[in-house]
Specification:
By secondary structure, the protein is an alpha/beta fold. The chain has 15 helices and 24 strands. A hairpin with a 3-residue loop joins strand 22 (477-487) and strand 23.
Length: 554
């Protein structure tokens, strides 16, 4: 922790009554969950379409599942993969594993065999809980590894609506030969696992990085990491008893697992789940469950904006909407607020920060950097210290560009079985984010871009985000991505890819002219390709790396 005798510059911009340091009293996630159950056992903890589970019921389900796992030899420190969409079984598994002192390995259900096998082998997972439809592919990926069993479950459980927009069949797929989760829970109903004493330093999650610079690395998110993020985000977002938090970020991603799941679970609020994130289903869920808060990628909010029947009435209960994963163009925030009356707040975090560590306070509109036109990602949250540093690790003055460095109890202790990567990325426990940023004198942080994405045009620096933000101002542009391409004359040339809004048209020449009027001569794109859809990660981040491969094909 940093020197607490010095008040950080961002304290003056904090909401009234919110301290820059918060004391997290619970010893573990299990202790925090037990306290929530004691406070309000009959309070609704989960909502899933027309299904509802109270805190006491969720506690009993997770006890039974923990006892079933314990009977099969799962114990402290064991890793168990979870390969599900956002369904109640994900949360039951989290709680059950934590009660055993075991570690949940977040596994993307969209991963192909090679990608999934890397996670299985790297983590040493002993078992996997998978969606029943995934069993054949999961079994193929796990063959010959340390995996002893693959347990399956169905997203049809815990609800009876069977919304055809989500469920293509009302009949579950066949269960794994190793068993079905519901059967394991039924077998051990009413039983509890042995009590275990846990500490902040115990690992709760292995969340793998996106692997944009090499093989994905398993960030060791501890009980203390998650408790700190849950406490600070709950205070920052103003969560109140009775609130409903919608999980639109996938729980196999750190944002979904911690902000959209753990944070509401440990507060006296309802976690609302809708399986896969279908934008029309999400809009309906806002109205049905009176959603007060959610955090998702800007891609989700863009998709919501495209739902024809979506209206301000759907978002009448929404107090705080947050978007993480990628900085938001100011024009997108403005358009969403104009149509729905709801302001999208920026929030920033990484797998290595256990999700959110910088954000825009509720009810506050983020300032815009006059130099770049970028929207601020916010202020450092309580217990976080942020600095802008040079290549040697020295702090830079306000307003100067450098690398964003973060420290505090939200930062993971390292990567699973990868001390070299830990030493490179987290020297002295301080996280080098790889983001180029500036901080103003009030503590507002502005992300310029990723260091590796800088484009060098005839010796001039061009940051893709600045060009993308200009493209987003064009009324026909739905999504935009800018990359550098080799150029024999300039060294690199600025190239843009865009997809267009439904019912809109724009030529490549028109878009080039639009940016040429608004950017310096060396910044505007020399080529613009209009394509149907930009390649993205499963969490909504645009894959610039994919766009660099074949310019005309995307």
């Amino acid at each position: 922790m940093e020197d607490t005798s010095v008040t950080p510059v961002w304290a003056g911009a904090y909401p009234p009554g919110l301290p820059t340091l918060m004391d997290v009293k619970a010893a573990s996630l299990v202790d925090a969950w037990n306290e929530r159950v004691r406070r309000n056992p009959e309070g609704r903890a989960l909502a899933y379409f027309d299904g509802s589970i109270s805190a006491a019921e969720l506690d009993q389900l997770s006890d039974a599942f923990a006892a079933a796992l314990e009977a099969r030899g799962i114990t402290y420190g064991d890793r168990i993969g979870i390969q599900l969409q956002n369904i109640p079984q994900y949360v039951i598994a989290f709680l059950a594993l934590w009660k055993l002192g075991a570690i949940a390995v977040l596994m993307n259900p969209m991963y192909k065999e090679r990608e999934l096998r890397h996670l299985i082998e790297d983590s040493g997972a002993r078992g996997i809980l998978a969606d029943d439809s995934l069993y054949p592919a999961t079994a193929a990926a796990a063959a010959g590894t340390a995996v002893e069993w693959i347990l399956t479950t169905s997203g049809l459980e815990y609800q009876r609506r069977n919304d055809p927009r989500i469920f293509h069949s009302a009949v579950p797929a066949p269960s794994s030969p190793d068993g079905d989760m519901a059967a394991w829970i039924a077998e051990f109903a009413g039983r509890k696992p042995a009590d275990r004493t846990l500490a902040h330093s115990d690992v709760a999650l292995l969340a793998y990085t996106s692997g944009t610079t090499g093989a994905p690395k398993g960030a060791m998110n501890t009980h203390g990491n998650i408790l700190n993020v849950a406490a600070t985000c709950s205070a920052w977002m103003g969560l109140q008893p009775g609130d409903s938090v919608l999980a639109v970020a996938p729980l196999f991603h750190i944002t979904g697992a911690v902000i959209d799941a753990a944070t509401p679970l440990l507060a006296d609020t309802t976690l609302v789940m809708v399986n896969r994130t279908d934008p029309a289903v999400v809009v309906d869920a806002f109205a049905e469950h009176q959603i007060t808060c959610t955090t998702g990628s800007i891609t989700v909010f863009n998709a919501i904006y495209q739902v024809p029947d979506a209206a301000a009435a759907h978002f009448a209960s929404a107090r705080t909407l947050y978007s993480g994963g990628a900085p938001i163009p100011p024009s997108t925030v403005h358009a969403f607020k104009e149509r729905f009356g709801a302001y999208i707040h920026n929030i920033f975090g990484m797998t290595e920060t256990t999700s959110a560590v910088i954000g825009v306070p509720p009810g506050v509109q983020a300032p815009v950097d006059p130099a770049s036109g970028s929207l601020s990602i916010g202020l450092p949250l309580p217990n976080v210290t942020a600095r802008i540093i040079d290549a040697a690790g020295n702090a830079l003055p306000f307003g100067e560009q450098g690398e964003l460095e973060l420290s505090g109890p939200q930062i993971v202790p390292g990567y699973w079985n990868n001390p070299d990567a830990t030493a490179r990325t987290m020297p002295g426990g301080r996280l080098r984010t790889g983001d180029v940023a500036t901080m103003d004198e009030s503590g507002w942080v502005y992300i310029v871009d990723r260091m590796k994405d800088q484009i060098n045009v005839s010796g001039y620096k061009v940051w893709p985000r600045e060009v993308e933000d200009v493209l987003y101002e064009h009324p026909a542009v739905y999504e935009a991505a800018v990359v550098g391409m080799p150029d024999a004359y300039r060294g690199e040339s600025v190239v843009a890819y865009v997809s267009l809004k439904s019912g809109h048209t724009a030529t490549e020449e028109e878009l080039i002219a639009f940016t040429k009027e608004r950017l310096a001569a060396y910044k505007y794109p020399r080529s613009v390709y209009v394509i149907d859809d930009l390649p993205k990660t499963q969490t909504g981040k645009i894959r610039r790396r994919e766009l660099r491969k074949t310019p005309k094909e995307g």
